[in-house]
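Reopening: structure tokens for the calcium ion complex, inputs below.
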Amino acid sequence: MSTIGDISYRTKWLISKRYIQAAIVIGLMTLVIAVPFLTRAFALTDVRNAGVFELDGNIVKGSTTPLPTDWGALFNANGVTQPLPSGALDAHWVNDGPHAVTDLTTFTTGSKDTLDIANAGWQCTPSGNITPKDDILHSYSFAIVPQSGPRAGDLLVYGGFERFANNGAGDLGLWLLQDPTVACSSTKGAVSFTGAHVVGDILVVGEFSTGGSVTTLNMADCTVAPDTANICARSNTGPISTLPWSTQDKTSGPNTLATAEFFEVGIDLTGLFGSNAPCINRFIFDTRTSPSLTATLVDYAEGALATCPTAAISTNVSPSPIPFGGSANDTATVTLTTASTVSGTVTFNVYGPFSSPPTSTSCTSTSLVTPFSPNTVSIGPGPSPQMATSGSFIPSATGYYGWTATYNPAGPRNGNTVSTNCGDANETLLVLSIPKITAFDFTNTPNNNDPTLGSGTVMYTFKIHNYGASVMLSGSLTVSGSASVSCTGGNTLLLSGSLAAGADATFSLTCTYSGTSGQTVSATINAMFTDINGATHAVSGSPTTYTFTIQTI
Ligand SMILES: [Ca+2]
Ligand SMILES: [Ca+2]
Ligand SMILES: [Ca+2]
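Re-run output (same inputs, fresh job):
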């Protein structure tokens, strides 16, 4: 059994580092933190005393501790992520063993931290012969924003891994990467990584060294300056035999980890970066020949860890349709993929008027309605989802209008910029002119409204008033019935012609009829109008039909 002692103790920040590829200077800055270890007894704690995760050098949640979670509570025996505690953003478990199986994810010897990931700077290769102390078996990640306590609102990231042996000195690194596409796996020969570094990527390095008879391991950050240090790491100071999942060790029996074969670290990214911490999407634990940036990298285990939520936006224009002269609003709902805060602005734009419902290509700079657009309103801050309503839009012409809405987050922790598309459902406003039938009557002679003689003359009159902008009328007044009926100029009176704003159009039709008792004469208005945008709609108003019955005595 090995012990850990004389753990190197140092802290180093390199806040500016450049990767040079093919004579092109790529302006990448990487924060490099050498994890300082200090040997001392420790109590159960968390990074910056956050009180949300057990950084206690073991894997399972303590039965008597007050802290809400540990690795063994985040994942089941198969590494499947379990329901996460309040404020949690993401958690992933990666299998990188067992030792006897060829590992498809190890670095080629030419891969260095100082190289960019892209352009073959990092390459992977399979290996069935990893030095036991450098062989990672499992790794895991967790991100949370505490909802209460001393670090409420901070973005905390945790990582942990198991290794196969503990003999001799050992070194490790943890990359927190923003590019979600960083990955590599090879079944034969060297394969280049996908993805690239992004300014703000983070590397944490640390080391195990042997000697002495120390049986506890700690990081200075956890206990020396617990309220201000933003990194806190631990290793197991004795064998771990209680594991939620199967693992192995070179010298112990199955499902036991010897001293210093488990490592975990917590990082307060808000403490390091302030409110604009980079959006982490991948984590990579590696083993290495030293904490140096030019160390030869050995094994790695990579997985996802999304610290920033993805935003979705949905919208609804209401009311629609509206009469010309009315107003409408658009309401946007922004939803985040994790329990995060919606905060920022929503910008609404209106396009039109169009003669038909807008499509995905309708919204152009020439159809943008100004000065109403852009109409920017604040949204949140508040827990997802949040809603924002545009200002009231009063169209100056009839027709169809298309709305779009864009969420502009205050920061990456509030999600990404996301927009609706032109022609989306619920984003079309229809503005109608409002011609209306304001009068419809008829006069019967010789016996008005009492056609007891079996025959007579009926004159129909009706009026359409235009409350809106100028329109073209169309349609008809049609007279028919089971009685014999004949109208001057035909039984159908066609409606046609323009109707100016505010004007009346009056129509009349005279008919003669004859029939027996019970037979009917009926007149129906079917009036339409076409607005200045070419859209055709029904004229409103009622009644549109009169029917009378002949009653001879
Ligand atoms: Ca624990
Ligand atoms: Ca690996
Ligand atoms: Ca491995």
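Residues 134 and 410 are 42 Å apart (CA to CA). Residues 96, 103, 105-106, 136, 299-301 surround calcium ion (ligand 2) (CB under 6 Å). Marking as resolved unless the reporter disagrees.
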